[in-house]
Amino acid sequence: MRALFIGGTGTISMAITRLAVELGWEIYLLNRGNRNAADLPMAVLADGTPAIKQITADIYDEAEVASKIADLQFDVVCDFIAFHYSALERDYRLFKNKTKQFMYISSASAYQKPLSDYRINEGTPLANPYWEYSRNKIAGEEYLMKMYREEGFPITIVRPSHTYDERKIPLGVHGKKGSWQVAKRILEGKPVIIHGDGTSLWTMTHNSDFAKGFVGLMGNIHAIGESFQITSDETVTWNQVYQSIANVLGVELKAVHVASEFLAAVGGPFGYDFTGSLLGDKANSVVFDNSKLKKAVPGFCATTRFDQGIRKTIENVLTHPELQEEDPEFDEWCDKVIEAMERTKKSILQSKS
Length: 353
What we know:
The protein is an alpha/beta fold. Helices cover 40% and strands 16% of the residues. It has helices spanning 11-22, 62-68, 85-95, 132-151, 180-187, 207-217, 238-249, 260-266, 275-282, 291-296, 306-318, 328-352; strands at 2-6, 26-31, 52-56, 76-79, 102-105, 119-120, 155-160, 162-164, 192-195, 201-202, 204-206, 226-230, 236-237, 255-258, 287-288.
């Protein structure tokens, strides 16, 4: 079986590439060839050729890509880096006669906000007025379903939620440079911001678990024309997320709870916008029902509990300095927000005395 992955070395796609190769797939990676290549497995196929083959090209150069895949046919094509429906229009032109299945990475953030029911399945309406990213994903889904209905383009839509790997600590509130600065604050005994009161429900999915569901849908006749969410069945609160991180770091968690609406209103440093990522996503309580996936992929089970997965992530980040990108602007912003909260609290208490 042969698959083409557009991207193939990101948080989600790296785990899928590894598992697909382990299960005997021949994988073509189409990207610019400059990211995480050293982390790819060095497996070979039965004929002695490499299981992973590189097509070095810019997907946004349609003519170049068309030339390089001219003599190839695929069982599966997946675009991991399509963020606008125009990219899917290009993909349709490139692959409409070259694949038996086209898989699109959408997002669970596309589900309607605010939610009418915290229990989410594939029948939950798609609508997110808070986040353009999610609306673009919805538009992509709508375009592909149109191509499936009208042209028979064999599509499968996949909706991940908060998926993490060994290279990045998953959090709710962080700056543009990622989550290391929050971990650093915890290590240094500084207070850290948790959105809301920290009791809203959330789901963290390790990328190795996500890969099991995704690869199970590859080449699966029951997946054509369908959408699937792939998440863990475990539910945690944000307080538990941050406490688990502090436990691994071996220090006390000093949490400061700040309303999501307040964070969205003030924004982060350099104009970082929390409206979409919080009000349109992480501030909502969600519990995912993966029954549809389990019917299509019998035996699917996410086995990495969050407190186990985050330990592996943090241990890896701590031993790789290149993953520890500091963000002094975000650090200063945290201090300002926390100071403002404390100042307001003191002012109100003083007015009562």
